[in-house]
Amino acid sequence: MTTEETTQNPVCPLSVGTPSDTTPYAHYARMDELLALQHPLSSARTEPGFIIMSQVKELLFKLLHIEFSTARDQLADDLVDDALWTLRRAARVQQVLLVSWETFSVMSPVEFAEFRGVLGSASGFQSAGYRRLEFLLGNKNPEMAAPHRNTAGYDAVVGQLYEPSLYDAALALLARRGLLTPDGSTDRDVTRPYRGGAEVEEAWRSVYQDPVGHRDLHLLAEALMDTAEQFARWRYTHLVTVQRMLGAKTGTGGTEGVAWLARISEHRFFPELWSVRSAL
C-alpha cells in the first residue's frame, strides 16, 4: 500500500485493538464494563431501575460539567458565540436530566420501601458530581465539601471551589465590555460566591435595554437564564418526587428530606438576571 493510500484509508485503531470477546462499539464506549456496574442488594424488581437511573444522572452531571467548563473558558477567551453554542448543547442535556425524574416518580411508596433499607446511609446528597456542578455555576459553600472528605472525589470537589465559576466568567466579560467596573481585588476569596448586587443588576439592565447594541450579551443573558431555570425546575421536580415517594419522612442517609429540598428549591443561580426583570 502506498503512502497516499494509507493517508486516504487510515486504519481505525479500534479495528486493530478490539479484543476478540467484544465488538468495536462495545470496546470504544466500554459498554461491557458499564453494563456490569449494576448490583442490586435486594430482590425488589424496582431496585435495578433505581440504580441505573442514578448512574444515568451521574453521567449527565459529568457531561454538564464538561459543557459548562467549556462555556466558562470560552467566555474567558471572549468567544461568546462559541459559548452560546456550548450552552445550547448543555440545555439539551439539562432537559434529559430533568426528564430522568419521571422514572422515579412512577415508583410507588411501597415499591421504594421494598429496597430502601439496603441503601443504608447512601444519599444523593453525597453526589460529588452534582456538588461540582453547583460550585461551577457559582453556588459556592466550602462547608458543602465536607460530606466528601476522605473520598476519591474530595480533591475534585475542593478543587472546584478554587476555580472561577461560569458566572464569574460572564461578569468578567461584562467588565471587559465596560458595563461593570473591573474587579481589581487581589485578595478575593475565590471559594466564596461571585460578586453580585446592584452594580451587577445595573449592568444586565443595560444589556436588556439595548438588545441590538449588546446582541451577543443579550443572547448570553438569556442562555444563562435557560440554565438557571432548568436547574430551578430540576430542584423543584426533585422535591415533588421525594414528596410523592417518602412524604415527610427523613431522607435517605439521615438527611432532612423534603424540608431540605424545599429550602434549596428556592435558590436561583445568577440572581441578578432574575432580579433585573423587576427593573425593566
Could you tell me the strand content as a percent range? under 5%
Report the strand count.
0
Q: In angstroms, what is the radius of gyration? A: 22 Å
Q: What is the H-and-E element order?
A: HHHHHHHHHHHHHHH
Q: What is the rounded distance between the termini?
A: 68 Å
What fraction, in percent, of the residue positions are helical? Answer: 55-70%
Overall shape: it is globular
Largest sheet report: none
Mean of residue pLDDT values: 89
- Estimated structural class: mainly alpha
Can you count the helices? 15
Q: Can you tell me the residue ranges where pLDDT is under 50 for at least 5 consecutive residues?
A: none
In short:
The protein has 280 residues and is mostly helical.
Plain-language structure description:
- By secondary structure, the protein is mainly alpha-helical.
- Helix content is 60%, strand content 0%.
- It has 15 helices and no strands.
- The mean pLDDT is 89.
